[in-house]
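Lab notebook, bench 4. We co-purified these components, and the gel suggests they stay together. Before we commit to crystallization screens, I want a quick structural picture of the whole thing.
Request: model the full complex, all chains together.
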Amino acid sequence: MTTLRSAKRSRPRASRPLRSLPSTLLLWILALGFLIPVAWFILSSFKPGSELFSLPLTLFPKDWTVSGYSTAWNRFNFAQYFLNTSIVAIVTTALTVFVSALTGYAFAKYKAWWLKAFFICILATTMLPTEVIMPSSFAVVRDLGMYNTLAGIIVPSIVTATGIFMFRQYFKTVPDELLEAARIDGVSEFGAFWRIMLPLAKPIAVVLAIFSFQWRWNDYIWPLIVLRDPDRYTLQVALRSIVGADNVDWSVLLAASVISLVPMVILFAVFQRQIMNADINSGLKD
Amino acid sequence: MSTTKSVDGRSAETSAVITLERRAKRARRSRRSSTRFVLAPLSFIAVAVVLFGLFFLWPGALGLWYSFTDYSGVGTPDFIGAENYIELAQDPVFYSVLGRTFLYTILSVPLHFAAALGIAMLLTSSLAKGKSAARIIFFLPWLISPIVAGVIWKWLFGENFGLVNYLIELMGGNGLQWETDPNLALVLILIVSTWGGTAFNMLLFIAAIRNIPQSYLEAAQLDGANGWQRFRRIILPLLRPTSFMVILLTTIGSMKEFAMVQALNGGGPGTSNMFIVQYIYRTGFERADVGYASAASMVLMVILIIIALIQMRFDKRNDLA
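Here is the predicted assembly.
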């Protein structure tokens, strides 16, 4: 009896490496498929210009060099683009988190027909993104005097359905008794939001901040239509102007693209746990 | 009788006092609650309402107005009736752009869905090894902007200089025309968008799969359901809300694909892979035909509304609120 049972139990254990082989193999073939383009791109950016096209192609550079990087940084006023993009991403993110928290809180903790109506309006913005009405969005930004300014990218991007939705879902889970208790103690409505509710929602704020930073850092359409002056370009628009040229200078383009990735990689390295475990299921993509 | 009367009389008296007091209190409370339950939420949503009005309603209304004018970006728009729409209905370029956008969307949605769900299943399976490292790799494209994604794949699939064609030629084949063959260029666009879109959808699926109670799967296993049956009969139905969201968001995302294609091949060769947002951009900004571009925008908007409505109807059980 005992021998039989132990034999039965040990069989799956013995065959586990074999049984896990197909899944593991498939997983890693796919993973390599995802990784190789990036690896090839990053390794190529360290090749000197002469080596980029010389056959036979090699995976690793024969002479490692950062000449592409220094050319890109100096020739294209990259520091300026970096600064512009950082200003846009950071300012918009701060405003997005604050406005989303306020609006989501109102949706979660108050009841009125006009709140419901406005909530539906906000949801509709995910179905009908501004990109589809570019010409008139541009006209609005221009009429507001924000053409060719960073404000013209920042202000229109503050409201996101995702952010408002995330905060609304979260505040719904906070018990109303907490708010009632605060009211009885004579705390004002804004005070209850600012001193009690907002600190509770810190995890949501962090997740939204990461997402918002990514959206704004990688955004292309708004900067494209709003900015004219190359001194005000963001990284994405600047990169597009290099890749769209008739003669693409690959050595510069590759290096410039790698540089533009650095802040996102750092962000990911720091907040990896929050990003990967974010329960974004209730939110929507922007 | 008399006692009851007196009791009644007293109680009437006291109750009158109580009612008065209550009334006063209620009046005070209602004054306070109007600040509390009307003014407070109103001020909380005020900023969002203003921004929504400025950057969604106003452009929407303005776009509708422009679509009936000959506005060119400067000067005053002149009303020309439905002329733009009539012209649009007879514009073969518009039809080919729309057709290409639909073709791309129809191909990309199942591809995105299958890739994200398949990878999420692998990453949550107990069999596969090295899952946490693989998960980071699959997530990498999320960090990369559409423009840089275009650059990365253009570099890899360059017709004369790319690694892929080099390897094909090394193995004795002829390099494929990733840039000059319209259909191969579309295939490349599909590959890149799937590569870039998988990360986010995969996270959605992983979270949803983890929420499936393990006991369901164990019970099915005891009843003799094999892996495929467990997936088909238990996991897939339970993932329905998430699947709905992934499909809806991917459809809308594909319909407005723009930035990545701009960097990858600019909608080329020629204009054969020009999608609708690029068409609107070109007409509105490069040809400065704002009225005509706005008419195209309105058509795209109606299409998006129809898509959203169809999908909502398709999934009645899902409540977005």
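The two ends of chain B are 60 Å apart (CA to CA). Worth comparing against the SEC data before the next meeting. Chain B touches chain A through 93 residues (CB under 8 Å).
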